[in-house]
Specification:
Length: about 230
């Protein structure tokens, strides 16, 4: 049997310090994982973690100029730690969770906030608020073998050089091991899966011409520029 058309290439993220690429399978995102951000969005501090997803081919890398997406007037940045999964697992225990991590990256969970607000109000899915083209900004993945694990340290985002978001990875409501354990009870995690682990307080809008830089302790900055409307 032949394909009816040539399959598109697998989306990838570069692996820092190597000439290798991490093939992206799925992108899961944790909602409301920092207390101050949960509060700024009108929610209590500790609810069970919940997840949404972005298509693998929404991934875009460091240095990209991203066209301002359609059907929004309120494109938001969200600085996030990205966990790259390197080993399959179902019902992973918290104690074993970090064994499934290949590496870490800076991320920016771009969000059409106005579309999300409409979806929330109507009780509808967030797919078009969160999973649009170029919405998963992920920097080079740093291997655990090189940088160890990331459970504390500053996470911040600047817009045009001005500090907008600041937090500490230690303030995540659900830690990386807890997120992996919980998510692996919902789906079988596979090598190539990425998890965007939620954003601290201070989210805000980007407009054409803006530059957004995500910084996470000891990981190189992740920079994007917003281009003209698509
Ligand atoms: Mn997010």
């Amino acid at each position: 049997m032949a394909y009816v058309f040539t399959p598109l290439p697998t989306p990838t993220v570069p692996v820092a310090g190597t000439t290798e690429l991490f093939p992206v399978r799925r992108i899961f995102c944790v909602g409301r994982n920092y207390a101050e951000h949960a509060r700024e969005m009108g929610h209590d501090d500790r609810e069970p973690p919940f997840f949404f997803a972005k298509p693998a081919d929404a991934v875009v890398g460091d240095g990209a100029t991203i066209p301002y997406p359609p059907v929004t007037e309120n494109l938001h940045f969200e600085a996030e730690l990205v966990v790259a999964i390197g080993a399959e697992g179902t019902n992973i225990t918290e104690a074993a969770a970090l064994d499934h991590v290949f590496g870490y990256a800076c991320g920016n969970d771009l969000t059409r906030r106005d579309i999300q607000a409409q979806a929330k109000k109507a009780g509808r899915p967030w797919s078009m608020a969160k999973g649009f083209d170029n919405s998963a900004v992920v920097g080079p993945i740093h291997r655990v073998a090189d940088v160890g694990h990331r459970d504390s340290g500053t996470i911040q985002l600047t817009r045009n050089g001005d500090l907008q978001q600041t937090g500490d990875l230690a303030d995540m409501i659900w830690s990386t091991p807890e997120v992996i354990a919980y998510l692996s009870g919902l789906v079988t995690l596979m090598p190539g899966d990425l998890i965007m682990t939620g954003t601290p307080a201070g989210v805000g809008a980007l407009v054409p011409g803006d530059t957004a830089v995500v910084s996470i302790a000891e990981l190189p900055d992740l920079t994007i520029t917003i281009g003209d409307r698509a």
